[in-house]
Amino acid sequence: MQTSAQKSCLEFTGNPSEATHIKAFLKALPIDNKANLELIKLLAKHYKVPKADIFIKKGLTSKHKIVEIINPRTT
């Protein structure tokens, strides 16, 4: 996860539907959990799931995170 980017976006390693590594570029700074919330919003939009179905399992205060997405949909 990289903060202070000009535009928020996701960069996938390999096929996006099977990606195990995603690099996120976020406009929000890691202050008051804003970067984590922006990451959840981007992932929810990409995988077409509600934000409530995305959980940061590990790395809440780290650049490296493990995220769980319930029933991701990609088409």
Brief account:
With 75 residues, this protein is α+β, with helices and mostly antiparallel strands. It has one helix and five strands. It has one domain: 2-Layer Sandwich (Conserved Hypothetical Protein Mth637, Chain: A), CATH 3.30.1200.10.
Provide structural commentary:
The protein has 75 residues and is of the alpha+beta class. The protein has one domain: 2-Layer Sandwich (Conserved Hypothetical Protein Mth637, Chain: A). Helix content is 19%, strand content 27%. The protein has a three-stranded mixed beta sheet with strand order 1-3-2, with helices on one face. Strand 4 and strand 5 form a beta hairpin.
Report the principal-axis shape.
Answer: globular
Number of DSSP helical runs: 1
The fraction of residues in strands falls at 25-35%
Radius of gyration: 12 Å
**CATH structural class:** Alpha Beta
CATH fold-level assignment = Conserved Hypothetical Protein Mth637, Chain: A
Physical arrangement of strands within the biggest beta sheet: 1-3-2
The poorly predicted ranges are none
How are the SSEs ordered, and which strands pair?
Blueprint: E1 2-3, E2 9-12, E3 22-26, H1 34-47, E4 54-58, E5 66-69
Q: Which short descriptors sum up this protein?
A:
27% strand, 19% helix, 3-stranded mixed beta sheet, single chain, alpha+beta, Conserved Hypothetical Protein Mth637, Chain: A, two-stranded antiparallel sheet, 75 residues
